[in-house]
Amino acid sequence: MKTRYIFSILTACLFAACSLDYDPIDTYSDVTEGVSQDSLQAVFKDKAAVLLHRQTLLDLFKNGQEHWYLDMLLLAESHSDNAYAGAPSSETTPFEVNSIEGSNTNLKRDWNAHMSNVAQANKLINYIDDVDDATLTETERQQYKAEAKILRAMVYFDMVRIWGNVPLVLTTAGDITSETIVDVYPAYFPPQTDALTIYQQIETDLLEGLEYAPDNNSQDKTQLSKSVARAMLAKVYAEKPLRDYDKVIQYADELTADGFQLVSDFSDLFGVQLTDPSLPASQTNKAIDAQARNTVETIYEAQYFTGNTNWVTWMFGRELNDWTFYFTWVKWITPSRDLIKAFNSEVGDTRYEQSVVFYQCDWNIYYPADNYAFMYKCRSAYNSIIKLRYADILLLKAEALIGKGEYSAAAAIINQTRNRAGLSNLPSSASASEEAITQAYLKERRLELAFEGQRWFDLVRLDKVEEVMNAVFSKDEGRPAQVYPFTSLSYILPIPQDVIDQNPNLVQNPGY
Questions:
Q1: pLDDT for position 472
Q2: GO CC: one term (predicted)?
């Protein structure tokens, strides 16, 4: 066996922005993994090793709350008109006032974490077929590889929407030895790939994953199922590079055939079970569990239980299972007055009380301390984080129908989520023109999906960034002054400068 004397360092370089002090999540070991005798990298030792790594992949969303959820909300909500940054700092405020630079530490950690997730998916995709274990069946190999491809597609979907041209890494770089260094070393510093090619690879991964992934399990929505692939395909085909409205409709309809539908009570998605609803929350009225998991509306979610709870909840407000826990400092993702005004533009929208809550606190940055607004969709340590839900895809079908000129059909879909929220149907004037139905649609997605990481990407996808964001600063008195106007160059964010400094093949995005 060839000596692997610098393998772990260079693995860190490739998948974690080439930071030499980065501790890679996965390292190869002769104890836990098989090894080759011909300078090839180590492979999984047996089926048990494959299953262990598969579980690591299934847990990535659950355990990666910073980059999969917290920072995604900062980008999608605070960088849009839905929220203020919350806790002013050099990391958060630039998202609020449009002054993001490549030095932003949140972007750096997100890039590193996403690339690490890609590496973990690639490990299973590239090596599972080499496992010499007869108990690992061909059906299992195909399923686990399909799951890893779906996961890789999800990671790249977020990356390409955030940064545009990013490195497309599909292989695991070989060992560096004295004999291989010339051929292998460049693979550790990959160049960027154009966004269209990234989207095409996402499409390929999802279609291949769809073939062999497990069916939707109505009792376990943490799985990378065929339904997850279908939901992601609907989202991918709504994006400009691969836009195909017929396919958006196709995959939305296939999700309906899979059994997905809107839950009748919106609070089932984000509510909690309380010890005694008649008592004040500061006493014994505390969350003891999520109100529901694995609903008919959830397609993919991370779930948290006693002993393995959702730590990120206290970043947004009060943690209802522990009323005073870490409630002494300013929270992230503060709902904007403009969003609250949109909720209150029609009387009776039940989504408002599930999305925004007011508490007394010790700070008065955006609101008076005695009546301060907080994001409410992640309100306890038991709350699931929902990555994909049917309402999102159903509304994307409405978007596709608008794109095809079928305004009345789009309005009928919008009315489904409106009615569930306690609102009446749209007036006929809302479907009288493309402009009218598009405005109704954007408002509906805004209210239905508030604080779920969608708003910024909706504005980008529909070319509404400049129109919406350059106007909100003058009409929302709680928002700090805008630093730079939004332009077409604002649609993607800067690549972390540290990453560029450590990889000479990367080029900064225009405008930064």
A1: 97
A2: cell outer membrane
* Both tokens assigned to 373: 């607004």
Question: Residue 438 belongs to what H/E stretch?
Answer: helix 434-448
What is the distance between the terminal CA atoms of the chain, rounded to a whole angstrom?
46
Q: For residue 91, give Cα distances in angstroms to 140, 298, 332, 491.
A: 43, 31, 11, 19
One-letter amino acid for residue 278 of the chain: S
Type of residue found at 172: T
For the stretch 165-206, pLDDT in tens is 999 999 887 666 767 766 666 667 899 999 999 999 999 999
Q: Using CA atoms, how far apart are residues 262 and 260, in angstroms rounded to an integer?
A: 7
| Cα Rg of the chain (Å, integer) | 23
Helix (H) or strand (E) holding 145: helix 138-163
Q: Supply 345's token pair.
A: 């533009």
**CB atoms inside a 10 Å sphere around CB 30:** 11
Query: Which residues, listed in sequence order, are joined to residue 295 by a DSSP beta bridge?
Result: none
Phi and psi at residue 372, to the nearest 5°: -105, 135
CA distance 394 to 390: 6
Q: What angle do CA 461, 167, 388 make, to 5 degrees?
A: 45
Task: Give the contacts of 134 (CB within 8 A, at least 6 positions apart).
Answer: none
Question: How many CB atoms within 10 Å of residue 150?
Answer: 26
Query: Can you point out the beta strands (E) in 352-511?
Result: 356-359, 372-375, 385-389
pLDDT in tens, 14-51: 444 443 333 333 433 333 344 443 434 447 999 999 99
> Tokens 């990889």 label which residue?
503
State how far the alpha carbon of 346 is from the alpha carbons of 371, 411, 425, 458, in Å.
Answer: 22, 17, 12, 22
> What is the phi/psi pair of residue 374, to 5°?
-135, 150
Residue 108, pLDDT above cutoff 50: yes
Domain ranges of the chain: 7-225+495-502, 279-377
For residues 240, 245, 249 and 252, what is the CA-based torsion angle, rounded to 10 degrees?
0
- The fold adopted by the segment(s) 7-225+495-502 is 1.25.40
Q: What is the pTM of this model?
A: 0.91
Amino acid in position 134: A
Rounded CA-CA distance 119/99 in Å is 31
Q: Specify whether the CB–CB gap between 269 and 452 falls below 8 A.
A: no
